[in-house]
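Lab meeting minutes (informal)
Scribe: AK
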Amino acid sequence: MIKAKYITTLAMICISTGLFAKTTKMETPAPVIDFQLPMFGKDGYKTWDLRGKEGFFKDENHIDIHGMFLKIYSGNEGCELDTTIESLQATLKPKENKAFGDDLIFVSGKNFNIIGKGWQWNGLNKKIAIKKDARVTFNQRLVSLAKD
């Protein structure tokens, strides 16, 4: 009898814990200050590393960020820094590997810098779209195509 009561109680705890886990939301009433969120690819190599002054976790796939600094890596064994993205305000969708914002964006790569306003980043295809006031600066010398 005691054994049956023990098993029933244990089963009820497991069931209620499972139900609770499915209904809980990852939301913070106050911002998380000076946070870091790394992301790794299927092979275990770092693909990007997000830092923010403040993060508001709305749910597991929605993070509003103040003071975003995103480092994008090669995603291979060398783990080389490919691009950095900075913006005062951003929204990250980590499960979709996307981010977007209406504020200014500063993008720096190996041989270029971009500044603009209103943007979207897609980490799956490694593309950044800037909606307006985009300015690109290349940091390498252009080779002349004209014959002398």
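Next up, CB showed the second protein from the same session:
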Amino acid sequence: MREHAGGALPDLANADVVPAHRDAPEIFATPLSPDEALGNVTALLSLPHARAISELEGFLDAYAHVVGDVALRGNLVPDGHVAAILFQHGVRTLYTNDRDFRKFESLDVKNPFARLTSTRVRNPVRLQRL
């Protein structure tokens, strides 16, 4: 089975949110400009094994199944949306350091940074154009 990298369209479309965190230096030391963020998404999607996925027919049923009894509010609303898209496309493993995704039983969440640090990142790395 060939693995693909990429993301759900709602997450990729929110790439322009990165610059909005200018008042939160703990997230990004030097935020990307909107053009840089869009450039990163464009470069990612141009890779041969990268793709963007979105809702399929029957999305509302998948959403209801994935969300189940999770009380969605705040940041969990778009997380539930992404989890349902991943479910529809057969994605069961999600690599992220966002612990909120652990609330969705359809996902096996793995933190790719777990072994690198057990504490908060002190010097965030600036994302570069791919």
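CB comment: The mean pLDDT is 78.
No objections, moving on.
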